[in-house]
Specification:
It holds the Pfam family DUF4528. With 154 residues, this protein is α+β, with helices and mostly antiparallel strands. The chain has one domain. It contains six helices and four strands; from the N terminus they run H-H-E-E-E-E-H-H-H-H. The protein has helices spanning 2-9, 17-27, 82-87, 90-106, 110-122, 135-153; strands spanning 33-39, 52-57, 60-69, 72-79. It has a four-stranded antiparallel sheet. A hairpin with a 2-residue loop joins strand 3 and strand 4.
Length: 154
């Protein structure tokens, strides 16, 4: 909890989670559906209270189901077609977001913690997402890549 408060008021030089999401979708050529994990400590979590929302990027709209599953953030992304957009109004999205947040609080976050632990076993592929950042962030991304290369050698 203290970490979240400190991170909120004193953000580190990390890419925002929303930037990583947009760049990942672009890098994958805007697929109809995709899913991925990102380490919580690798991004600034600017989507903290968002669980179910619409993300617009590159002329496409995606329905995002996002959950924190320590030590990761898990994203499920579905590209919306015109028929889907008719049924997903702002009020519906807001109510779904509240519903999912309520469920997480009700079950004390235990399933999401278990999902994160199991996720560590499930992740078999690591991919870098490239995006425009300032010099500090580029060094940070380069440092992560260097660490990943060293881990692969082991």
């Amino acid at each position: 909890m203290i970490y979240l408060l400190l991170d909120k008021f004193f953000p580190r030089n990390l890419p925002r989670a929303s930037e990583v999401l947009n760049c990942y979708l672009k890098q994958q050529n805007y697929p109809p559906w995709t899913s991925y994990f990102v380490k919580q400590k690798s991004v600034y979590n600017d989507q903290f209270k968002e669980t179910y929302f619409i993300n617009k990027t590159g002329g496409h709209e995606y329905l995002i189901l996002r959950t924190g599953c320590f030590p990761f953030i898990k994203y499920h992304c579905t590209r919306l077609n015109e028929q889907d957009k008719k049924y997903l109004d702002e009020k519906f999205i807001h109510n779904q977001n509240l519903f999912f947040r309520f469920i997480k609080i009700l079950n004390l976050g235990i399933p999401t913690l278990m999902y994160g632990i199991i996720g560590q076993c499930l992740i078999t592929h690591v991919e870098n997402t490239n995006f425009n950042l300032n010099i500090i962030k580029k060094e940070y991304v380069a440092l992560i890549r260097l660490k990943l290369k060293n881990l692969i050698k082991l």
